[in-house]
Specification:
The chain has one domain: GIY-YIG endonuclease (3-Layer(aba) Sandwich). The longest helix is centred in the C-terminal third of the chain and has 13 residues. It is α+β, with helices and mostly antiparallel strands. It has a three-stranded antiparallel β-sheet with strand order 2-1-3. It is built from three helices and three strands; from the N terminus they run ββαβαα. 39% of the residues lie in helices and 26% in strands. The two termini are 13 Å apart.
Length: 88
C-alpha cells in the first residue's frame, strides 16, 4: 500500500504534498528535519491522506495534487471541507 499525504506546516501554515509507504514514519522524518524540502518549516501535521495499491498510482495522484488544478481543488476543500471518504 502507498499513501499520498498532505502536511501542514505549523510554522508557516503552508502545505506539502508527498507519497510514501508509511505515512507515520515519513511524518517523523519531516518533523526531525531529515527532508531537505521541509526542514526549515517544521513542525508538520497530517491534513489528508489517500491510499493506493501501487506506487505508480500514488505518484500519479501526488503529481495531480501538485498541479495547478489540484492546488485549486485542495484550496476549495480546505475552505469548504473534504468530501466524505468511502468505507475501507
Amino acid at each position: 500500500m502507498f499513501f499520498v499525504y498532505i502536511l501542514k506546516s505549523l510554522k508557516d501554515q503552508r502545505t506539502y504534498t508527498g507519497y510514501a509507504g508509511n505515512v507515520v514514519g515519513r511524518l517523523r522524518e519531516h518533523n526531525q528535519g531529515k527532508v531537505d524540502a521541509t526542514k526549515n518549516r517544521r513542525p508538520f501535521i497530517v491534513l489528508y491522506t489517500e491510499c493506493y495499491t501501487t506506487e505508480q498510482e500514488a505518484k500519479k495522484r501526488e503529481h495531480y495534487w501538485k498541479s495547478g488544478s489540484g492546488r485549486r481543488k485542495l484550496k476549495k476543500y480546505f475552505n469548504e471541507g473534504f468530501p466524505p471518504r468511502p468505507p475501507m
